[in-house]
Amino acid sequence: xxxxxxxAEASYKWWVTVTTMMGALMVVLDITIVNVAIPNIxxxxxxxxxxxxxxxxxxxxxxxxxMPTVGWLGDALGNKNLYAASLTLFTAGSALCGMAWNNDxxxxxxxxxxxxxxxxxxxxxxxxxxxxxxxxRGFAMGLYGVGVxxxxxxxxxxxxxxxxxxxxxxxxxxxxxxxxxxVLLATLVLRQLRPREVRPFDFLGxxxxxxxxxxxxxxxxxxxxxxxxxxYILSVLGISLLFLISxxxxxxxxxxxxxxxGLFRNPVFSAITALAMVFGVGLFGSxxxxxxxxxxxxxxxxxxxxxxxxxxxxxxxxxLPLSGRLTDRLDPRFPLTLGIALFTASLYxxxxxxLRTSYAAVMGMLVLRGxxxxxxxxxxxxxxxGAVPPAKVGLASGLLNVLRQLGGSFGIALLSTLLVRxxxxxxxxxxxxxxxGSYGAREAIQALEALAAKSGGSIVEVKxxxxxxxxxxxxxxxxxxxxxxxxLLTAVLTLLSMVLIYFVRRFK
Length: 508
Prior knowledge:
The chain has 508 residues and is mostly helical. The protein has 17 helices and no strands. 80% of the residues lie in helices and 0% in strands. The protein is globular.
């Protein structure tokens, strides 16, 4: 059989890059773009926060459940067919979400979207990894990282624009032209490699794994609202633990397990997946905190928040390919160490945020964060996939993605709880300074009384307004301090993860 000429081989990998990055970008964009439209969807369907949460939660659960199945599905269908089918399902789900007539129908269609997304993200990574020669796979993972990191950055601005100028339905309809184009490119561009031997599907493993992931994600998403020590959350966590134990027992005995736990005996793969989980905490956690701080405390609009995050996304896009080149040529521990150090520094800088922080300074923090992310992704992904046999790349990709997703869910739950508790702590500390009669209280109240007096009213009314204003300032300052504590904790966790870099080594 004649081999393709070198120029044709070179052009193929770039066509693969365009095709697969389109799908990956759509998936991660959809996570953040929908969040901006949630208040409008609530008003449209007349539902409360507890009900609307399922629009987000159902999508994340469906994604997480499907990711570990990519190895088996890729063997059964071939990665080309699997990519095209998952992108078709995601696009169809997007169209149905845009046409949803009530909250229940929207949740159902979001599950369809999530099923497609859960397969699309890891299979895109596997296809790109296999399309590039061994000596360029770090660079390939850098390019892949561009798609999965820019999406969360531009999502708030794009979602805000579509919601304000059109309707919330367009946050779903925007996927349609790109989805159709992506399916067409996949059909024309991607090659169908020789299918591998298809093992029997491990239904028991899939059911117990799904039960574990769904119950764990449910507990993480509802823990802060229900109370972490409530009977409901403790019961859900107990169910999750039972499913996990059952899954581990089944996978240890079944002939053809869904997930080969033996992969975790490899210290490199185990270290990288642990790093991915911690990075998920830092990435998703900080992405969760930044829009809340800028919009709720600093008064930014969603579009302004998106604009301030955009240079950070561009920094990621610039440094990911550079890091990929370094990963191909140097020990991956070098870019990993540099990336985690810069990412940690950016989180520490964010822990110094206050209401007087300038727009330019916030932008600078996010640019530094983007540079750090750019140096982390390629060595992380390339080393994880290089640590497993070629036939297990699809499985490893699915595991890496789901563990990073779990890390992100844990990070958001952890930081949500921390915000509430640290705000209460700081409020109590600051409240001690405004005890009537204290020097600090007298100074503050006199200044505020002068300000309140400009609006007129009796002395009693002026004093009451001054005290109310002082109380609101205490609450606001306590909220700022709580966010600073959350950023600092995230920085510490990220810094501690550098210990895992010791187990990383280069694969050729």
